[in-house]
Amino acid sequence: MTLKVLSAAALGLALMCAGTTATSVYDFTLNSIDGKPVPLSDFKEKVVLLVNVASRCGFTPQYAGLEALYEKYKDRGFVIVGIPANNFGGQEPGTNQEIKTFCKSKYSVTFPMMAKVSVKGADQTPLYQFLTASNTDSKFAGEIKWNFTKFLVSKDGKVVNRFEPEITPDDPRVTAAIEQELN
User: Fold this and answer.
1) Of these residues, 15, 19, 57, 98, which one is catalytic?
2) 166 lies in a domain?
3) Could you tell me the CATH number of the domain that includes residue 118?
4) d(CA 109, CA 130)
5) Strands (E), 28-114
6) What share of the chain is helix, strand, coil (3-state, %, to 5)?
7) Who contacts 47 (Cβ-Cβ below 8 Å, separation ≥6)?
8) Tell me, what's the pLDDT at 136?
9) DSSP letters of 135-177?
10) What is the Cα–Cα distance from 139 to 155, expressed in whole angstroms?
11) Which DSSP letter does residue 112 get?
């Protein structure tokens, strides 16, 4: 019993230490939906919107708004990174290939899509450990509550805003924040 407690404490300490070494989203690498490593540092000098997405969610129609937002601002140095997750009600059950096919055929998604990850819980991917940690930025910290939570990241890789799922991509608060970061 004591060994289990020590192991859990060691794991917690390791995760805390891992989180404190990262200083920006550029310190992380995700796999693309096609399985190739994508260092987020590839997006340096761009304004990035990180969004945990799902194909069978009430918010799934936000894909259309995300694509429109991407098309509107991509030539000015803006990118959206879609990050599928199956943490909420099993609303992203498909394989990466099924997710990719769905996004292309249903919403004509052209922004970068990553491989499915976990955004909360014991298997939370390190990027989301960083995004939700209070020591990263307490204004934007806290557990992901549902699909389509959006993190706006400045050109230097710092989180500058968080939008909960009910805030749509075309909401004036989102577009104003993007415009501010682009200017």
Assistant:
1) 57
2) yes
3) 3.40.30.10
4) 26
5) 29-31, 37-39, 47-53, 78-84
6) 40, 20, 40
7) 73, 77, 78, 79, 152, 153, 154, 155, 178, 181, 182
8) 80
9) TT-TTT-S---STT-EEEE-TTS-EEEEE-TTS-TTSHHHHHH
10) 19
11) -
Paired with 150 in beta bridges are: 51, 163
For residues 3 and 152, give the distance between their C-alpha atoms in angstroms, rounded to a whole number: 41
pLDDT at 30 over 90: yes
Convert the pLDDT of each residue in 70-118 to its tens digit.
Answer: 999 999 999 999 999 999 999 999 999 999 999 999 999 999 999 999 9
Q: Is 52 exposed, middle or buried (0-12, 13-18, 19+ CB in 10 A)?
A: buried
Residue 57 annotated as catalytic:
yes
Give the dihedral sign, CA 141/159/175/169: negative
- Residue 30 within any structural domain of the chain: yes
Rounded to whole angstroms, the Cα distance separating 1 from 7 reads 10
Q: State which residues form the domain around 114.
A: 24-182
Counted domains in the chain: 1
- CA 153, CA 78: separation in Å to the nearest integer? 10
Q: Identify whether 2 is part of a domain.
A: no
pLDDT at 1 over 70: no
Give the rounded percent of residues in the chain with a pLDDT score beyond 70. 89
pLDDT of residue 50: 98
pLDDT of residue 138: 83
Q: What pLDDT score does 17 carry? A: 44
Domain contains 129: yes
Q: If you average pLDDT over residues 160-166, what whole number do you get?
A: 97
